[in-house]
Amino acid sequence: MISNIPQLTGFIFIVCDLITAHVLYHTAQLFMSELFSRQMREKEKYAKDAETLLLKQSDLVLPPVYVASAYLFNPYIIFSCISQTTTVFANLCLAFTFLLMIKGKRLACCSVLALATLQSLYPVILLVPASIYIAKAESRRSLRCSSFILTAVTFITALHLLLYISLKLAGGWEFLHATHGFILNVPDLQPNVGLFWYFFTEMFENFRLLFICAFQINATVLYLIPLTLRFHGEPMLLATSLTALTAIFKSYPTLGDVGFYLALLPMWKHLFKYMQQGFVVGCSFLSTSVMGPVVWHLWIYSRSANANFYFGVTLAFATAQIFLVTDILFAYIKREFSLFHGLHREVNGKTTKLVLE
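The structure corresponding to this sequence follows.
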């Protein structure tokens, strides 16, 4: 692109973002329809006083619009498009993965997910929610186990095919060291919005391998099993949570990664009233987004600050994201509990409060 059509590069990035927003809009439409259909099937199991929690037909219209708007007008996404980072293409692949996942299209979903994995490695964990969605689309319950296996085999086959194409294009396997090897080994400690760079700058070299393993496990499989066990009935929320946790803990995160999962949150607009950390999270996002460039300038250009100032901002930024993810997950649990057990909870005649232990 840079060599052959440099005059169209900016236009291509804009078009990719527009396509991503369009794909996310359709994903949100399908998801809201799925939520409403599930609610109608399970309505008889809900508590009698849970009527106010139920989704209405009118509630299905605005969330897809909010999703597209939250992506197109998100400053983090706009900054990524202006800077022409490849995060734009990663977000496009992820958006198609979510859409094809909810449609239950095994071959297309696995192919796009393999392309996203080839580029940035971490999306491989989305294979789990994708497999759950595709298995649920199977008509017979006995086929679900074989469906998981078939989905995994399809993904591995697609990934191997892409690796073979890359091998032919690159003329050797060196590209793996420059892509996946670079992501896993973290050789470049230039400051970013993540957490890796500071810890690996400060630690002793003897402990590097240990910390790399610990950090990479934290960014990939540590939360995968517990979240899957708890939210296997809500694979879209599972996929969004895993995408958010990856954006927080990956070795080289970008603002575009954060903007992508933030754009998905309006799909759970019905959970917002159960969230308790909205004000804290909002203020933290706003303050860190302003202070980040300020302390960067003070450190790199003015030389009147040091790395601790900038890392303090990135640490607060990561903490705000963690608060956001845990808050939306707990809000889902609270609404689910209220649907089946009612809104009024009393013990020995006293009103009780639902807390997470």
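DSSP finds 16 helices and two strands in the chain.
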